[in-house]
Amino acid sequence: MTSRVAAIAALLCVALSGCATTTAGTATPAAETPLTTPESLPSLLLSATDVGAVMSSADMVVTRDVTAPWNDFARSSWNDSARLQDAADCMAIAGAAQQDVYAGSGWTALHGQVVREPPAAPSWSHFAVQAVVLFPTAQAAADFFAGSRDRWAGCSDRELTYAQQWAPDQVWSVGPVSTDRDVLAVSRVQRSPQTWSCQRALTVHANVAVDVEACSLDGPASAAADIARAIADRLPSA
After folding, report:
1. How many domains does one find in the chain?
2. What domain range includes position 204?
3. Is residue 10 part of a domain?
4. Average pLDDT over residues 113-120
5. DSSP code per residue over the chain
6. Domain of 44: which CATH number?
7. Does the residue 162 lie in any domain?
8. What is the tens place of the pLDDT at every residue in 227-237?
9. Residues of the chain with pLDDT > 70: what percent?
């Protein structure tokens, strides 16, 4: 009787898709993706030439290296509490690797660069910020990404005004937020005083967040997501 039951079970496995074969042995856990260390962060960023190639500009250089988040919020001027809260909530849309955005996230190290046409150039029409931010664990980085997705959505499909201390207010139209191949992205277009087109992009790989902004005066920009993916491809895999 036992052999007959076994034979019927074998026939069912042949007839039904998805049957698994049980074998003796010890289960081996899948290899975990190696964690990145602070020392390796600078090597993850793209060269100015590579950034320029993505942005269709042959004349881009690194104009600034940083190891701490930017604090653009502190350099803005706000004249009422509603606008102040709006700015704090939407700083991630305004720029990459912002201090208020990463506050309380548990990040442990950061390396970022500003890439644009040379300072000696008479004018410049391309601008990028690329940053890699280290977290103590992959879970901490994943939690930051999940929270960012919600915050970005709250600032999408609307108009944002950023008051400046020594210049006219910047007025931006923000588009919808999308997630494509694990890259969170949103575009914004400056309505005044200039007509910059920018894209923000964020992706997470293991314990590293890749945070990018790419802006151009040439028209709609979609380079930030491409830069973020290129940086993520440099990170170690399992």
Report:
1. 1
2. 35-232
3. no
4. 93
5. -HHHHHHHHHHHHHHSTT-----SS---PPPPPPPP-GGGHHHHSPPHHHHHHHTT-S--EEEEEESS-B-GGGGB---SHHHHHHHHHTHHHH-SSBHHHHTTS---EEEEEEEES-TTSS---EEEEEEEEE-SSHHHHHHHHHHHHHHHHHTSSEEEEE-BSSSPPEEEEE---EEETTEEEEEEEEEESS--EEEEEEEEETTEEEEEEEEESSS---HHHHHHHHHHTTS---
6. 3.40.1000.70
7. yes
8. 999 999 999 88
9. 79
